[in-house]
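Duplicate of #3305? Posting structure anyway:
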């Protein structure tokens, strides 16, 4: 995979050989990749080249930069016959550090001859922060021997994982004269969580075969930013550009069509000063919209008992902001700790006993601890405030009540309580970017919460 540079070559040939290859390849040995990862220095390849060539290399400069790739894409496998179509629409972002290597003209140090961007850096695989901003997928699941096949649909980001690619996610090599220009962007891979589909079912669909769904764009010279465009963007704080992509391929033997289309937004920033914030939420919501308990014993009037369930919430989350010259940019974050505790409210404990139980098709009461690994699905800085889109979570739980036999026989009560309202209302709040700021929210009679912000660094 890596080519070795012979030590016996003369310096002129060595120079040509070194600069005709991308930096992530030209260092050669696998052990040097490991050394790069261990160094933690994005610009380690440039420093190694300077130390190796032992000439005046002052015209070569390396800058650590921050990259965000935001992918908005749709992929489908359209089959004929009973197997139908797999389809996934997804938006996710990838944040990572890269290096920007600048090589100036040796005679005119104000003129840039070429630049190169490689990331993640160190590489590979590098350190990526990934956030699923939205997903809607339908794919085929079957029992053994492709029996009892049926479509499975989900729009929950928590049902998916993002797998980093072992190759760079961005490689751009631009030259002023256009000789040797090359570039590509490609994504990590979206796959289903291992425990999403359990035996005897398995995923039959093609959209998540192998290492999952992924996308890529090859860049022509006209697609790449010139140095002047890139420099102007970085000086203002951020360079952005969108690249569309699409592909459609028919496979006659398998008799299906694979189609992919979408766009990727490239954001490049110089290494920015970062802020880290903590968010603490305490609150409760109540569901009193379900039917009352009704009991009727022989020769006695019917008794109606109101019943409701409260859900006590505790959440702790963190998020990062990058400070540019003129603004702040949301760089991701997520929930660190989460708990929700349901409690039954029912006055007539002398007539019946009630307990929380699992609803049909569910494994039990809501387990909010699973939220501890969930990122915010979106975040945006608006002026001096930030708005966070919290991941969707349902508090659905069932209540089972049984009357005491001495009064009304064996007629039982079972209903589902809860919903998705708490996270929805949190996501509507604008949070002032001020250490110690408190935001409260209240829906009369059925919801109350307090949000506290703390600046960590």
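Output from current build:
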């Amino acid at each position: 995979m890596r080519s070795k540079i012979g030590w016996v070559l003369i310096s002129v040939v060595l120079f040509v050989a070194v600069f005709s290859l991308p930096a992530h390849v030209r260092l050669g040995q696998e052990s040097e990749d490991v050394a790069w990862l261990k160094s933690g220095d994005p610009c380690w390849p440039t420093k190694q080249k300077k130390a190796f060539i032992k000439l005046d290399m002052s015209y070569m400069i390396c800058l650590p930069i921050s990259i965000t790739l935001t992918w908005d894409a749709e992929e489908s496998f359209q089959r004929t016959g009973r197997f139908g179509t797999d389809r996934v629409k997804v938006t996710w972002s990838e944040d990572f550090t890269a290096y920007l290597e600048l090589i100036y003209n040796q005679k005119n140090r104000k003129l840039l001859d070429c630049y190169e961007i490689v990331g993640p850096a160190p590489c590979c695989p590098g350190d990526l922060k990934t956030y699923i901003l939205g997903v809607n997928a339908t794919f085929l699941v079957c029992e053994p021997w492709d029996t009892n096949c049926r479509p499975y649909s989900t729009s929950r980001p928590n049902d998916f994982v993002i797998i980093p690619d072992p190759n760079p996610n961005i490689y751009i090599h631009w030259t002023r004269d256009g000789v040797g220009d090359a570039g590509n962007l490609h994504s990590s891979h979206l796959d289903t969580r291992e425990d999403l589909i359990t035996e005897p079912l398995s995923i039959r669909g093609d959209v998540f075969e192998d290492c999952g769904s992924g996308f890529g764009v090859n860049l022509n010279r006209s697609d790449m930013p010139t140095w002047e465009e890139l420099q102007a963007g970085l000086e203002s704080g951020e360079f952005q550009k969108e690249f569309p992509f699409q592909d459609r391929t028919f496979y006659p033997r398998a008799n299906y069509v694979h189609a992919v289309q979408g766009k990727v937004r490239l954001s490049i920033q110089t290494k920015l000063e970062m802020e880290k914030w903590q968010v603490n939420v305490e609150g409760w919501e109540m569901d009193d919209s379900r039917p009352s308990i009704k009991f009727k014993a022989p020769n006695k009037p019917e008794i109606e008992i109101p019943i409701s369930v409260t859900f006590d919430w505790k959440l702790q989350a963190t998020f990062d902001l990058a400070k540019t010259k003129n603004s702040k940019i949301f760089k991701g974050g997520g929930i660190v700790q989460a708990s929700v505790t349901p409690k039954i409210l029912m006055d007539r404990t002398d007539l019946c006993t009630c307990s929380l139980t699992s609803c049909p098709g569910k494994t039990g009461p809501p387990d909010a601890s699973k939220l501890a690994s969930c990122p915010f699905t979106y975040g945006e800085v608006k002026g001096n405030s930030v708005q966070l889109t919290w991941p969707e979570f349902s508090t659905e739980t069932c209540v089972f009540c049984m009357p005491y036999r001495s009064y009304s026989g064996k007629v039982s009560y079972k209903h589902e309580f809860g919903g998705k309202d708490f996270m929805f209302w949190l996501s509507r709040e604008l949070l002032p970017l001020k250490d110690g700021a408190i935001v409260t929210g209240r829906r009369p009679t059925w919801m109350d919460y307090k949000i506290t912000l703390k600046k960590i660094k």
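Confirmed duplicate; merging threads. The chain has two domains: 60-271, 274-455. The helical segments are 11-19, 23-26, 30-39, 44-53, 227-236, 405-408, 421-426.
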